[in-house]
Amino acid sequence: IRQSAAVMLRLRVKKHWNKISPNDRESLKAVVLQAFAVETEHKVQHSLSQLCAVMVKHETPDRWPALLQLLNQSTKSTNPHDRRIGLLLLNKVIESNPEPFKPHYCQLLQLFSTVLQDYNNPPALYYCILTLTAIMAYTGTEEMKEMRAIIPSLIVALKHLIKADQEQASEAMEVLIELMEIEVSIIVPHIADIVRFCLEVGSDTALSDSVRVKALSCITFLIKLKSNSVLKLKLLGPILQSIFPILTAAPPAGEQDPEDEEDDCGDPTDSDNPKHSAAQMIDTMALHMPPEKLFHHLVPLTQACLTSENPYQKKGGLMCLAVLAEGCADYIRSKMLSSLLQTVCQSLSDSNRVVRSAALFALGQFSEYLQPEVSKYCAELMPLLLGYLSSLSEAKIGHVTKVFYALENFMENLGSDIEPYLSTLMETMLSALNNMENLKIKELAVSAIGAIANAAKELLVPYFPPLIESLNGFLTATTEEMRPLQNQSLDTLAVLARTMGKDVFGPLAAECIQLGLKLTDAIDDPDLRRCTYGLYSAVSTVSPESLTPHLTAITTVMQLALKSNEGITAHLEEDKTFVLLDDDDDDEDKGIGEGGKTEEDFLEDGPETDIHDFAGFSVENAYIDEKEDACDAIGEIALSTGAAFQPFLESSFQQVFEMRDVSHSGCLFSLIVPLCSVCCDGHAACGSPSLSE
């Protein structure tokens, strides 16, 4: 009951503080501090500290001397419990509004230096480190000396916190990344100590994956920012010596690595575990270190793995080669591509499926980043890949996914060199579409057809009629389980529109536009809408006149996507969430925050609402992708349809321009082209002698 009362009062104070009289404010501050001082239940103390944090947003610390006095007394108390509770309160009020406490930073850093040695009080260590993280971005040169001096104690404190509570330790270790990001010069004298600590934690198999991943990510972040310092301190060798056992570790008996499981369909470096963190670290090294120095250390380690009889050693070596492809592309192309491809080809024929899967991933990476040189090895690689395709029905879906990943990346850049293999490829793909029961394999085959079309172009024309016939059933699907296959079919249809040319695809153009509009009317799915935008855009390059009668409907859907806040979620401080501006929900189903706070409450707060009351906002990737693709489509359709788009220029420009403050970098990048495109189109429509001008 006391906790609920504190939560309700916090929401009321946040919303109506300016309506409370000065006398009532003073009374409220006194009552809250008194309640906090006598409370014994931790959950209630936590809620009361959050209430104090909300009040500090309105009442700066200097206008609340009683708060400062309580903080001073409790954090310096000889009673460990009082210190813990005092540091909890300090953490909440500073996290809510760090800057007004800046005059006290030096004093706080002296306090932290003492608290960080309180090893028998892990909660005190935890709250202390979180508070240190909160003030980091606001420190200046006057606090530099104290900040540097505190780092050795901070590392020791983290070690003790790991022993006491790994979950809290993982969160607290964010302080290291914050130190690097805000003021990397502070940690330069301590880089070696930080690296040794993180390697020790990352290599300890007795610890949880989360804390090991956090430790390894700290080193990865350091390499990104200070790769030269890592090299000068001769830390590259020790780092690689430590992470290779992680990269090549076998899973526990009876288990598999996530990417080797039967139903896995993802990127082998995407999962959040120590092995993948080790691979990501090597990837970062490749992007930020001179390849000569990196390969000097990597070659003997990788060779030892690849010549081992242990399949997980081989897998680790292949994963290492795979993640080097992007950052060291020029070096590999000029010095070792042939030998690396020979290694990959041998591994593609390995008796162990774990090794073959890793080899397929490596080939996919090489095909993506080492073009056009990789395509020259078509005669050696295509027979191997076609051999994999011949046994699709027998392979596990995770393995099949990797086969198609390698195949797609390799085929897409072959151009006319694909001709000798085209018949076999298309027979295999069409057979998969018509005869396979597994929907995932059908989806992969449809995607591969898009890659084949990009390479073959007009060579694919003889296969166009049966291909469209096979896709028809997927394009008009109505069940949820068919949605991924339907979306992929729309994407591939767009590729066919661009590659088959007007004579072949033109007769289907109007039907494609009608299909897209019918689907978006019937199905509310951001991924499906995104695919239809790509289809409209592709058709506009082949048959712009097919879009003209439907431009009102098409631009309306895309502008609504740009305007919509659907999928934005506000995260409250106590890990409760509500969906912000979800127009489709009934009022009673909208936001569920503490004390029943709803979307309407948030919107009605007006200027009194402080966005910092929320831990943050997130947007589902599907909605971000939809906005990006809508931006791209608007630009291309505007250019393709020319004067017909003029009535929609102003509204499109305005809606796209209003997206300029969006924080997602992909959207920002996508906005540049359509803005310029729409402007160019308007220039052309007004009588410009040359659109290219």
TrEMBL record:
Comp. bias (Acidic residues): 256-270
Signal sequence annotation: none
Subcellular location: Cytoplasm; Nucleus
Importin N-terminal domain ranges (all copies): 1-38
Main location: cytoplasm
UniProt keyword terms in alphabetical order: Cytoplasm, Nucleus, Protein transport, Repeat, Transport
Annotated HEAT repeat ranges: 340-376
Regions of compositional bias (Basic and acidic residues) in chain numbering: 590-600
Entries under InterPro entries matching the protein: ARM-like, ARM-type_fold, HEAT_type_2, IMB1_TNPO1-like_TPR, Importin-beta_N, Importin_beta, TPR_IPO4/5
Pfam families the record matches: HEAT_EZ (PF13513), IBN_N (PF03810), TPR_IMB1 (PF25574), TPR_IPO5 (PF25780)
Annotated region (Disordered), positions in chain: 251-276, 583-605
PANTHER family: IMPORTIN BETA (PTHR10527)
Record-given protein name: Importin N-terminal domain-containing protein
Source organism per UniProt: Ilyodon furcidens (goldbreast splitfin)
